[in-house]
Amino acid sequence: MTEHGLWVYVHILLFVYWLGGDLGVFILARAARRAELSFAERAYSLRMALVIDVTPRVCFALMFPVGLQICRTGGFVAVDPIWLLVAWAISLLWVAAILAAGKNHDKPLGATINQWLLVFQCAALVVLVAIGLWSLAGGGPFQGAWLGTKVLLFGLVFAMSIGIDYAFRPVVPAFMRLATEGSKPDIEAAISGSINGAILFVLGLYALLLIIAFLGVTKPF
What we know:
mainly alpha; 84% helix
Protein backbone atom coordinates (compact mmCIF):
# COMPACT_ATOMS: atom_id res chain seq x y z
CA MET A 1 0.00 0.00 0.00
CA THR A 2 1.27 3.46 -0.91
CA GLU A 3 1.52 6.25 1.67
CA HIS A 4 -1.39 7.99 -0.04
CA GLY A 5 -3.49 4.82 0.09
CA LEU A 6 -2.73 4.42 3.79
CA TRP A 7 -3.92 7.94 4.61
CA VAL A 8 -7.06 7.44 2.51
CA TYR A 9 -7.74 4.24 4.48
CA VAL A 10 -7.33 6.12 7.80
CA HIS A 11 -9.60 8.87 6.48
CA ILE A 12 -12.31 6.32 5.63
CA LEU A 13 -12.05 4.74 9.08
CA LEU A 14 -12.43 8.14 10.74
CA PHE A 15 -15.47 8.90 8.61
CA VAL A 16 -17.11 5.55 9.42
CA TYR A 17 -16.56 5.82 13.17
CA TRP A 18 -17.59 9.49 13.16
CA LEU A 19 -20.86 8.93 11.33
CA GLY A 20 -21.56 5.54 12.95
CA GLY A 21 -20.80 6.74 16.47
CA ASP A 22 -22.89 9.86 15.97
CA LEU A 23 -25.80 7.72 14.78
CA GLY A 24 -25.61 5.76 18.05
CA VAL A 25 -25.70 9.01 20.03
CA PHE A 26 -28.67 10.14 17.93
CA ILE A 27 -30.67 6.96 18.67
CA LEU A 28 -29.88 6.99 22.40
CA ALA A 29 -30.72 10.69 22.73
CA ARG A 30 -34.11 10.07 21.13
CA ALA A 31 -34.73 7.25 23.64
CA ALA A 32 -33.87 9.60 26.52
CA ARG A 33 -36.76 11.92 25.65
CA ARG A 34 -39.40 9.15 25.81
CA ALA A 35 -41.56 9.90 28.84
CA GLU A 36 -43.09 6.40 28.86
CA LEU A 37 -39.74 4.86 29.82
CA SER A 38 -38.60 4.63 33.42
CA PHE A 39 -36.17 7.22 34.74
CA ALA A 40 -33.46 4.54 35.03
CA GLU A 41 -33.87 3.60 31.37
CA ARG A 42 -33.82 7.21 30.21
CA ALA A 43 -30.85 8.11 32.41
CA TYR A 44 -28.92 5.10 31.12
CA SER A 45 -29.65 6.08 27.51
CA LEU A 46 -28.42 9.60 28.17
CA ARG A 47 -25.30 8.39 29.99
CA MET A 48 -24.41 5.98 27.18
CA ALA A 49 -24.99 8.72 24.60
CA LEU A 50 -22.46 10.92 26.39
CA VAL A 51 -19.95 8.04 26.57
CA ILE A 52 -20.31 7.10 22.90
CA ASP A 53 -20.17 10.76 21.85
CA VAL A 54 -16.45 10.83 22.67
CA THR A 55 -15.68 8.62 19.64
CA PRO A 56 -17.17 10.87 16.91
CA ARG A 57 -15.64 13.91 18.59
CA VAL A 58 -12.18 12.32 18.46
CA CYS A 59 -12.72 11.37 14.80
CA PHE A 60 -13.75 14.96 14.08
CA ALA A 61 -10.57 16.24 15.73
CA LEU A 62 -8.32 13.93 13.69
CA MET A 63 -10.02 14.48 10.34
CA PHE A 64 -8.33 17.73 9.29
CA PRO A 65 -4.66 16.70 9.71
CA VAL A 66 -5.40 13.38 8.02
CA GLY A 67 -7.05 15.33 5.20
CA LEU A 68 -3.93 17.48 4.89
CA GLN A 69 -1.83 14.33 4.64
CA ILE A 70 -4.05 13.14 1.79
CA CYS A 71 -3.72 16.51 0.05
CA ARG A 72 0.06 16.25 0.32
CA THR A 73 0.48 12.62 -0.75
CA GLY A 74 -2.14 12.95 -3.49
CA GLY A 75 -0.51 16.03 -4.95
CA PHE A 76 -3.59 18.21 -4.47
CA VAL A 77 -1.77 20.80 -2.33
CA ALA A 78 1.91 21.48 -1.66
CA VAL A 79 1.77 21.34 2.14
CA ASP A 80 4.76 22.72 4.02
CA PRO A 81 5.89 20.23 6.70
CA ILE A 82 5.63 22.96 9.36
CA TRP A 83 1.90 23.31 8.67
CA LEU A 84 1.46 19.57 8.94
CA LEU A 85 3.23 19.70 12.30
CA VAL A 86 0.99 22.57 13.46
CA ALA A 87 -2.16 20.76 12.30
CA TRP A 88 -1.20 17.55 14.12
CA ALA A 89 -0.23 19.43 17.29
CA ILE A 90 -3.56 21.25 17.39
CA SER A 91 -5.45 18.05 16.62
CA LEU A 92 -3.74 16.03 19.35
CA LEU A 93 -4.28 18.81 21.90
CA TRP A 94 -7.93 18.86 20.84
CA VAL A 95 -8.21 15.09 21.33
CA ALA A 96 -6.60 15.38 24.78
CA ALA A 97 -9.11 18.08 25.73
CA ILE A 98 -12.04 15.94 24.49
CA LEU A 99 -10.88 12.95 26.54
CA ALA A 100 -10.30 15.13 29.62
CA ALA A 101 -13.74 16.72 29.27
CA GLY A 102 -15.36 13.30 28.92
CA LYS A 103 -13.55 11.95 31.98
CA ASN A 104 -14.58 15.00 34.05
CA HIS A 105 -18.01 15.61 32.54
CA ASP A 106 -19.64 15.87 35.97
CA LYS A 107 -16.96 18.12 37.48
CA PRO A 108 -16.16 21.84 37.20
CA LEU A 109 -12.98 20.95 35.29
CA GLY A 110 -15.06 19.30 32.57
CA ALA A 111 -17.24 22.40 32.22
CA THR A 112 -14.16 24.63 31.97
CA ILE A 113 -12.58 22.44 29.29
CA ASN A 114 -15.84 22.44 27.32
CA GLN A 115 -15.91 26.24 27.43
CA TRP A 116 -12.40 26.38 25.97
CA LEU A 117 -13.38 23.81 23.34
CA LEU A 118 -16.31 26.03 22.39
CA VAL A 119 -13.97 29.01 21.93
CA PHE A 120 -11.67 26.86 19.82
CA GLN A 121 -14.53 25.61 17.64
CA CYS A 122 -15.78 29.15 17.04
CA ALA A 123 -12.29 30.19 15.95
CA ALA A 124 -11.92 27.12 13.71
CA LEU A 125 -15.31 27.84 12.14
CA VAL A 126 -14.26 31.37 11.17
CA VAL A 127 -10.79 30.37 9.95
CA LEU A 128 -11.86 27.39 7.81
CA VAL A 129 -14.85 29.15 6.25
CA ALA A 130 -12.60 32.11 5.42
CA ILE A 131 -9.94 29.83 3.89
CA GLY A 132 -12.58 27.94 1.93
CA LEU A 133 -14.06 31.14 0.50
CA TRP A 134 -10.58 32.50 -0.22
CA SER A 135 -9.67 29.29 -2.05
CA LEU A 136 -12.89 29.38 -4.09
CA ALA A 137 -12.06 32.97 -5.05
CA GLY A 138 -8.77 31.70 -6.48
CA GLY A 139 -6.32 33.02 -3.93
CA GLY A 140 -6.34 30.47 -1.13
CA PRO A 141 -4.11 27.46 -0.51
CA PHE A 142 -6.70 24.85 -1.59
CA GLN A 143 -6.92 25.22 -5.35
CA GLY A 144 -9.69 23.44 -7.19
CA ALA A 145 -13.34 24.28 -6.66
CA TRP A 146 -14.14 20.88 -5.17
CA LEU A 147 -11.36 21.14 -2.59
CA GLY A 148 -12.16 24.74 -1.65
CA THR A 149 -15.82 23.77 -1.26
CA LYS A 150 -14.84 20.80 0.88
CA VAL A 151 -12.82 23.02 3.24
CA LEU A 152 -15.68 25.51 3.41
CA LEU A 153 -18.20 22.78 4.27
CA PHE A 154 -15.82 21.29 6.84
CA GLY A 155 -15.77 24.70 8.49
CA LEU A 156 -19.57 24.62 8.62
CA VAL A 157 -19.35 21.28 10.44
CA PHE A 158 -18.02 23.30 13.37
CA ALA A 159 -21.21 25.38 13.25
CA MET A 160 -23.30 22.20 13.50
CA SER A 161 -21.15 20.94 16.39
CA ILE A 162 -21.55 24.23 18.25
CA GLY A 163 -25.30 24.16 17.61
CA ILE A 164 -25.60 20.62 18.95
CA ASP A 165 -23.74 21.56 22.14
CA TYR A 166 -25.87 24.66 22.73
CA ALA A 167 -29.15 22.89 22.02
CA PHE A 168 -28.24 19.96 24.29
CA ARG A 169 -27.20 22.05 27.31
CA PRO A 170 -30.63 22.16 29.04
CA VAL A 171 -30.93 18.35 29.01
CA VAL A 172 -28.68 17.58 31.99
CA PRO A 173 -30.31 20.14 34.37
CA ALA A 174 -33.73 18.88 33.25
CA PHE A 175 -32.73 15.29 34.04
CA MET A 176 -31.51 16.37 37.46
CA ARG A 177 -34.97 17.79 38.11
CA LEU A 178 -36.55 14.65 36.69
CA ALA A 179 -34.60 12.55 39.19
CA THR A 180 -35.89 14.52 42.19
CA GLU A 181 -39.30 15.80 41.07
CA GLY A 182 -40.46 13.09 38.71
CA SER A 183 -42.05 13.65 35.32
CA LYS A 184 -43.75 17.03 34.92
CA PRO A 185 -44.96 18.78 31.76
CA ASP A 186 -42.39 21.58 31.97
CA ILE A 187 -39.53 19.13 32.59
CA GLU A 188 -40.61 16.90 29.69
CA ALA A 189 -40.97 19.98 27.48
CA ALA A 190 -37.44 21.08 28.37
CA ILE A 191 -36.02 17.63 27.60
CA SER A 192 -37.93 17.17 24.33
CA GLY A 193 -37.30 20.72 23.16
CA SER A 194 -33.58 20.46 23.82
CA ILE A 195 -33.16 17.06 22.17
CA ASN A 196 -35.35 18.03 19.20
CA GLY A 197 -33.27 21.16 18.71
CA ALA A 198 -30.05 19.14 18.83
CA ILE A 199 -31.48 16.66 16.31
CA LEU A 200 -31.93 19.44 13.75
CA PHE A 201 -28.22 20.28 13.99
CA VAL A 202 -27.35 16.57 13.86
CA LEU A 203 -29.27 16.20 10.60
CA GLY A 204 -27.40 19.23 9.28
CA LEU A 205 -24.15 17.55 10.29
CA TYR A 206 -25.10 14.35 8.46
CA ALA A 207 -25.95 16.32 5.31
CA LEU A 208 -22.60 18.13 5.39
CA LEU A 209 -20.64 14.91 5.94
CA LEU A 210 -22.37 13.17 3.04
CA ILE A 211 -21.68 16.10 0.71
CA ILE A 212 -18.06 16.34 1.87
CA ALA A 213 -17.59 12.60 1.26
CA PHE A 214 -19.16 12.91 -2.20
CA LEU A 215 -16.82 15.76 -3.12
CA GLY A 216 -13.78 13.87 -1.90
CA VAL A 217 -14.62 10.73 -3.87
CA THR A 218 -15.93 12.23 -7.13
CA LYS A 219 -14.11 15.61 -7.35
CA PRO A 220 -16.93 16.78 -9.64
CA PHE A 221 -15.68 20.30 -10.40
